[in-house]
Each structure stands twice: as structure tokens, then as C-alpha cells.
Design brief:
Layout: H1 2-39, H2 41-49, H3 51-71, H4 77-95, H5 98-101, H6 104-127, H7 136-156, H8 159-193, H9 199-229
Helix pairs in contact: 1-4, 1-8, 1-9, 3-4, 4-9, 6-8, 6-9, 7-8, 8-9
């Protein structure tokens, strides 16, 4: 029994490595895409000058996330991979304007800070004996509250509310990182103990979806930190 449990533990470890590999691949695609956009100012300015194109890209991002969330079990691994990489590329395009707003040094510092915070909470979520799943409803309500507050602030344009949203966003996505890591780890155990015929493909698809969740945690944590720490260009 001990040997069997140890074998499953090693399998879960390999599964988590796959999750992180895909997450960093997505972040890499986003970073390269943003750099590419920055290298072509005319293309970037065209994007910023057309609200229709910009909001179409935002809508495509939301559509891809919803598509992956709803159909990850039924779609092929190749289709899931394409959707994840396409989403990462679209995020890179829509995030590229931050290089025009914030200094490169503050973006670099914020990225490093995000990586440290994300790494610390990912380690905590993986190794803690505390049951973080009970926080699920609370975290979901917090996320919903931030989204609603963000929409409201489009009309009020309050600097105080914007600061509060950023602080709460940092706290929320820090907690979500630990929560999601533990949730993915528990899901990995369920997959490893299952005896379904498509065990390998299902494992690969769930790893990809887990990578998407952690990718979203990292990106949102970075953006909220940037709003707090970033130095804007003069």
C-alpha cells in the first residue's frame, strides 16, 4: 500500500510539473506577443485607436475561457492546446499598451514581485494540510465583487475606489493561487486513481486547464500589483 501511494504521489508531482510547464508556456507566449506589438508602434497605435477591434479582442478572450471551461472534457487535447495558446496570444496583444503607460523598470519590478508572491502561495497551497476548498464560495464572491466594482468605477472614475479594488485584487488573487493549486492537486489524485480508458488524454487536458487557472491568477495578480506599484511615464 505504501509503495502504491508513493507511486501515485510521484505521478501527481509529474502532473503538477506539466501544469506549471503549460502555465509558463502561456506566459511566455503573452510576453513575446506583447514585445512584438511594442516593436511595431504603428500596429499598436492602430489597435488603441480602434475601440471595435480592441473590444473584439477582449470578447474573444472571454469566449475562449468560457469555451475551455465548458467543453474541456469533450474537446480533443489538440483543440484545448490551440485554445489555450490562442488565449495567451490575445492577452499579449491587449496587455501591450501597459508598456506605453508604465516605465519598463516598474513593470520588471512588478513582474518579479508577482513571481515571488505567486511562488510562495503556490508552495503553500501544495503542501499545506489546511482545507482551502472551503474558501471557494468566499473567493468567488470576492471575485464577483471586484468585477462589479470595476465596472462601476468606469462611470465614477474614483481614485480611492480604484486603489481599494487594486488592494483587494492583490489579496484575492494571492489567496486564489493557493486555493487553485490545492484544488488542482486534489483533482490530480482523483485522475490518478481513476481507471477510465482515456486516462492519459484526460490527465493532459486537465493539466492544461489547471495551467489556464494559474495563468489567470498570475496575470491578474500582476495587473493589480502594477496599478499599486507601477510608475507611470511622464
Amino acid at each position: 500500500m505504501f509503495t502504491t501511494h508513493a507511486t501515485f504521489t510521484q505521478s501527481v508531482g509529474r502532473f503538477m510539473h506539466k501544469v506549471y510547464a503549460w502555465m509558463f508556456t502561456g506566459l511566455g507566449v503573452t510576453a513575446v506577443t506583447s514585445y512584438f506589438m511594442l516593436s511595431y508602434p504603428a500596429l499598436l497605435m492602430y489597435l488603441l485607436s480602434s475601440k471595435i477591434i480592441f473590444y473584439t479582442l477582449i470578447g474573444a478572450q472571454l469566449g475562449l475561457v468560457m469555451y475551455l471551461s465548458a467543453f474541456i472534457n469533450s474537446m480533443s487535447y489538440r483543440a484545448a492546446t490551440f485554445a489555450f495558446l490562442a488565449y495567451s496570444l490575445l492577452v499579449g496583444i491587449t496587455l501591450s499598451p501597459i508598456f506605453l503607460v508604465y516605465t519598463m523598470s516598474s513593470i520588471t519590478l512588478t513582474c518579479a514581485s508577482t513571481a515571488c508572491m505567486f511562488g510562495a502561495m503556490a508552495i503553500y497551497g501544495y503542501y499545506t494540510d489546511s482545507d482551502l476548498t472551503r474558501l471557494g464560495n468566499l473567493l468567488f464572491m470576492g471575485l464577483l465583487g471586484i468585477i462589479i466594482a470595476g465596472f462601476a468605477n468606469w462611470f465614477f472614475a474614483s481614485s480611492v475606489l480604484d486603489f481599494a479594488i487594486s488592494v483587494l485584487g492583490v489579496l484575492l488573487f494571492t489567496a486564489l493561487t493557493a486555493y487553485d493549486v490545492q484544488k488542482i492537486k486534489l483533482l490530480a489524485y482523483q485522475i490518478m486513481y481513476s481507471d477510465e480508458d482515456n486516462h492519459v488524454e484526460m490527465s493532459d487536458k486537465i493539466a492544461l486547464f489547471g495551467a489556464l487557472q494559474l495563468y489567470l491568477d498570475f496575470i491578474n495578480l500582476f495587473l493589480h500589483l502594477l496599478r499599486l506599484m507601477g510608475n507611470k511615464r511622464k
